[in-house]
Every structure is written in C-alpha cells, then in structure tokens.
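Many introductory courses stop at the sequence. We go one step further.
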Amino acid sequence: MTLKKSILITGGSGSFGRHCIKTLLEQSDFDKIIVYSRDELKQFEFSQEIRDPRLRFFIGDVRDFDRLRYALKGVDTVLHAAALKQVPAAEYNPMECIRTNILGADNVVRACIENNVKRVVALSTDKAASPINLYGATKLASDKLFVAANNIVGDSDIRFSVVRYGNVVGSRGSVVPFFRRLIADGADHLPITDERMTRFWITLDEGVAFVLSALKRMRGGEIFVPKIPSVRITDLAKAMAPDLPQITVGIRPGEKLHEVMVPREDSRVTVEFDDHFVIKPAIAFERKERNEERFYFANELGEHGRPAKTDFEYESGTNSEFLTIEQIIETNKRAGA
C-alpha cells in the first residue's frame, strides 16, 4: 500500500502560498495540501479559483499553538510562509510583529515536533542578514529558532531548514506595483530613494521552485540562499518608464542601500554550490554527523559544494550579475508585473 503524503503551508493564502500550492497541485505527489491562514476571505476566493479534492482549508493563526497542533496531525511536510512583513508597520507595532514572526515561529517548531512532521522549511528574507529594522530582527530570530530546532528532536528523523531570498518581482509592497500605479495615474516623474540603490531580483516562479528544491536538498540546520541577479533602481525606473524623469527622495527609515543575503561574518560557514549558497549552522548539534566538517558540502540530491572565499559577502551591490534594462523588461513581463 502506498503511504499518503500531506503538506501544510502557513500563510497559504498569501501570494507565495497560492503560487506554491498551484505548483504542488501540478507537479507534486502530495495527496493532501493544507492551506493554513487567518484570512477567511482569501481562503474562500482561493477555494473558488481552484477546486481540487487534495486541497484543505484551515482558518488559523501561527500565534495559536493549539490550532497549529490540531492542523498538523498526520502532516509530513511544512512550509512556513506566514509573517508580518511591512517594515513601517513593524516599527509602529513591534509586539505584533514579535508575536507573529518570533512566537509564531516557536509555535510552528513545537507543533511540528509534537506531530512528528518530517521536513520543515521556513521562509526568510534578506532583511534577516545584518538586520537594521525590527522586521529583519524578528526574521533573524525566527531563522535561529528553526536552525536550533534540529537540536531538540533527539533521534527522530525531523529536519528543519531555512530559505532566504530577496525581493519578489511584483509582490505586494515592492517597488514595481508602486511604480505601476504612479505611471497609470499619469505621474510626471518617478521617485528614487537613492540612485546608487540595488536589489536582488527573483520571480515568484523562481522563488517557489527554489523553496521546493530545498525540501529535496535539505539535511537539516542549513540556510539556503539562491544565486540570483541584481538590478539598479535607476535601471528599473528606466525599464518601466523610459520617458519619465527620476527624482531622488532619500532612503526611508529601516531601508538599506544594498541588500545582503550572506553577511561577511558568515563567510567562514558558507558553502557555495553551482546555483545556490548554504550557510551552515554556527552551533553544535546533538546529532553528531551534522557537526562533521564536510556534512553540508553534499546535499540529499548528491550535489557537491565548496567553501566560500574568506571574507565573502553576497550583496546586491557587488553581485557578479546585473540585469540590463532589456532583461528587466523581459523579467517583469515574465513575472506578470
């Protein structure tokens, strides 16, 4: 008899969750896919958009441990995508951000261990690397919780890992829809925070594919970082509105000039693969094999990595690949942004 497999996605009715679920329905062999989120309207709209007997909808908040524990019964795999992500909102409502992003992460860890979930991947952000705002600080704490969770599972075959990547093209709150609205409203210029500013650039398709690849690659305790191109904010503005002038308005509070996904301080524990990096855990694990020097130099797909260069830093401003204006136009079109 074939064993049935099930996966639960926290924040499953958000932009990542919806796209990931559509991909899973098309490409995976999961028999049950659970959408776990607190927005009943989004869940209803999603259930009307996609009618599939494999889908289950659970109203719940990651702040609610008992609800999580109930929802995770019989689940094999978890993708943790739920978070409060708006930088200004986090600064103004710090405890709300902490309750969801840190205490909620702890609830996910504990509920997964209690239900013997086999594989758990948590989504992170570039803002968790050398954070300068509360949102980034809470996601760094969340990353630490998921990495350290590998230490409290004993001999159980439960693995926790993290995926970190930068701006998703066209996602809510990103600069692309902001520029689109200005252009549609007949703006006479585009506001640029700083003409030196750069950002990593990844489409939702690419982000979902990378997260799902991490589920196959993971050994437990590592942070996965994809190799992706950068864009200059001035090039993005030219790609979207070549005839509009650009006016510098200054960097907003909590905003960086360049994004960092692998801080220089982590270079000594970073492994480079062909299309991604792995940041090894900085702590020792009870599982002795995970403390072996070469343990994270090969993954479960048989891919092999090499130590990153000393003092290496993966930063959008010094990235080896930048998209041209033409490539930005094509990427945005491909992303539907």
